[in-house]
Amino acid sequence: MDWAYFLDVDGTLIELAMTPDAIEVDHALPVLLETLHRQTGGALALISGRAVADLDRHIGILQVPRAGQHGLERRDAAGRLWRHETPEPVKRALLEALAPLLARHGGLLLEDKGSTLAIHYRRAPMLGAYVHRFLGRLVSDIGQGLQLQAGKRVVEVKPAGVDKGMAVAEYLTEAPFLGRLPVFIGDDITDETAFALVNERGGISVKVGPGRSCARYRLPGVAAVRAWLAYQPMSPHHEHP
Ligand SMILES: O=P(O)(O)OC[C@H]1O[C@H](O[C@H]2O[C@H](CO)[C@@H](O)[C@H](O)[C@H]2O)[C@H](O)[C@@H](O)[C@@H]1O
After folding, report:
1. Per-residue pLDDT tens over the stretch 46-80
2. Annotated catalytic sites, by residue?
3. Strand, helix or coil for residue 11
4. DSSP string, 173-214
5. Single pTM value for the model
6. What ipTM score was computed for the predicted complex, to two decimals?
7. Ligand 1 pocket: which of 6, 9, 10 to mutate (most atoms <8 Å of CB)?
8. Where does the signal peptide begin and end (predicted)?
9. CATH: 3.40.50.1000, 3.40.50.300, 3.65.10.10, 3.10.150.10. Which one for 3-82+162-234?
């Protein structure tokens, strides 16, 4: 059976950086992804926590389908964009509540992704537990179907009930993904829903780096992921990592 490739971005295809805009996308990445996309007949998608527009800006290769904001937005192989929105008044209330926190702690960084608001504390790691508590209280006060999403030195507030696993499941109902065995590679907590979905479908789930995971395989880091992906098109029979 042919494989369909679903790839997380930060920490999987690109090394982590101090801030979301500080990532370095070297020229080899788009070349690798374009090649894999072509050689799989288009069965490659990026599944990221970043916004789709942000992926477009940093990574380009617009012909590769992509899901952003942990599945809240998804561009399919036909170029159609599907979106779950956070209602405007809810977003306004969140931004108002976050303003004093951000004003008080210059080391924190707000990333407004549209439907999701992320507070990054990589520049002020000692504030991590505080930020988690603050946002946890905010979500329970505001309610409105919101949920917290933890990540690497980041906490996000997003609409509940949509995740990366759902985005992968949606792609698998559409050409050219339909009927293929899914492969998902990711490094973070948010990738666990996709690993679980892929495991259910008998696919290949690959966790990048250390940490607990339901993924069945491991790769040590970004360089190993890229090396493994580069090997795929050359292999006549796909082998497990
Ligand atoms: O699902 P991903 O594609 O892995 O995206 C997860 C988050 O990635 C970005 O944040 C992370 O990477 C930043 C740049 O390396 C780093 O500074 C930050 O600490 C990491 O959490 C992105 O900014 C988030 O929106 C994504 O959710």
Report:
1. 999 999 999 999 999 989 999 999 999 999 999 99
2. 8
3. coil
4. TSTTTTTSEEEEEE-SGGGHHHHHHHHHTT-EEEEESSS--S
5. 0.94
6. 0.98
7. 10
8. none
9. 3.40.50.1000
